[in-house]
């Protein structure tokens, strides 16, 4: 038997936030919520784990810094320590101030770009990806909450969602 | 209402007394004549001789050919050492006069030591309250919604502005009266032999210098007085007229401030090295005073909160202050590095001596600053959760304040005491003295008004501020 989900549509983000709290309190499982814009506090209300994207960014930044240091050290100090305009190229530290702009930029470059790519990969976004949108109106002005019907009584669940203020409730066969 | 605990009061007074005693000792211990310097140097000859050898060695390495005669090196050495003092009257060839000149040079440095220690500490605590006033005015002018609950703390810190400013002014007047040699351009004998300073006397002369200082201090104190008065009046008002007045005053102050702050940094700090100039110096000093001010707001707020006086200040407010500490620390480093790297890179002799002196004689504080003022806050305050941990913010704040004391120290000391620097009794005592005075005035001022600005239009938003 294919699993069933209920799509409950709300017209207001405050209503949605309240509904999320009630649904979680009643121990129903929220599969997904589709919003036209970020609703402040929705992730907290849903109990989603905080993102670790910032941590990856910090680590990518360290990678960028290491790449810059290793590159400049090899090129300017080890491989061909030329005298360019009297800059001291005997050791890395002696000529370091002139490498700092590159070290800084590469740190930012790695931190920013690799984090963005991580974000795309983790949220499965790419060109030509087929949009996963259960209802076109969710990109404009309605909020859609997907609740697992699982082995709950469909009528009870429908009534419950109706009481939370849903303006439309649909039972959907999940693929 | 806040009541000043007798413990805090006593601690502040003890700090002041101990600091004053140490400072007086510093003034007494400073040598008066060249003979005393010779005696002092003889008693600690080992250390001194060693240091002298080391600098000579460094200079040998820097000279183009390795086989340069020692005589030349000595000449080179003393020339660089005396360049600032410009004691051109002594003949360069004679050994004996050279030695006397050397001792006289050291004498001036040692006589400057307690004065410079006093000046650094006086300026450091003064700049904290000035930085807080700038931050306070920005909060008003930007109509920030999060900070009004902290306004009374900021106002209390700026209470130090006037007394602290008067102390700095008195030190400047005493310098103008030739009680010390902090500003060598104030010495007519030096100016007489120094064409570079002669060309700057239109700006760098004692009366104009003191008039300028009076204008800056008078202006800042005036704005502070009005802002505070209007803020208190707003508590009892029936409309927002005082708030609107303060909004305009704050905007006016910020314009006045950025001009006078820049000139203040030329006058009070850059003119210590009258042969040297840097265009971003005003910003550099601003960043230092701004971050010290914000850090002090955070530390005092956390202290008051821990005593149960600021129940409406929550972790989000501390988080915001910590973000400012983090951001402005990076801003300070950006300016520090921009100034250093541009001069290091072009390596123009008349500019680069400033950093050569600091790197050779002040290596530890000069580069240590980067750890305390940049690395430490960046690594500790990067994490969003850490910015809410109060003891973390206090610990980082203390390190930042130490670092910015060092910053002022490295700005002032090389020009006044040169290689004779040491963080000893006079320096620590001066910090204790002003720390005691600062704490006493600030916490005394906190008792003068309720800790929550009542009718500020943003106070409700601020109380419920949540990040």
Gyration radius over CA of chain A:
26 Å
Number of domains of chain B: 1
The counted number of beta strands of chain B is 0
Beta-strand residue percentage of chain B: under 5%
Strand order of the largest sheet of chain A: 2-3-1-4
Strand tally of chain A is: 4
Overview of this protein structure:
The complex is a heterodimer of chains A (175) and B (467). With 175 residues, chain A is of the alpha+beta class. In chain A, 47% of the residues lie in helices and 14% in strands. Chain A has 2 domains: 68 residues, Alpha-Beta Plaits; 72 residues, no CATH class. Chain A has a 4-stranded antiparallel sheet with strand order 2-3-1-4, with helices on one face. The model of chain A has no long low-confidence stretch (mean pLDDT 92). Chain B is mainly alpha-helical and 467 residues long. About 10% of the residues of chain B have low confidence. Chains A and B meet through helix 4 of A and helix 13 of B. Chain B: Keywords: Membrane, Transmembrane, Transmembrane helix. Chain B: InterPro entries: MFS_trans_sf.
Descriptive keywords:
heterodimer, A: 175 residues, alpha+beta, Alpha-Beta Plaits, 2 domains, 5 helices, 47% helix, rod-shaped, B: mainly alpha, globular
Outline of this structure?
The complex is a heterodimer of chains A (175) and B (467). With 175 residues, chain A is of the alpha+beta class.
Q: Strands, helices and their partners?
A:
The complex is a heterodimer of chains A (175) and B (467).
Chain A (H helix, E strand, L loop, with lengths): L3 E7 L2 H13 L4 E5 L7 H5 L6 H27 L16 H27 L20 E6 L5 H10 L4 E6 L2
Antiparallel strand pairs in A: 1-3, 1-4, 2-3
Chain B lengths: L5 H24 L4 H10 L1 H18 L7 H14 L11 H47 L9 H8 L2 H16 L11 H5 L2 H4 L7 H31 L4 H28 L12 H26 L8 H32 L2 H13 L1 H19 L8 H27 L8 H22 L12 H5 L4
Helix pairs in contact in B: 1-17, 5-6, 5-7, 5-11, 5-12, 5-16, 5-17, 6-17, 7-10, 10-11, 11-12, 12-13, 12-16, 13-15, 13-16, 14-15, 15-16
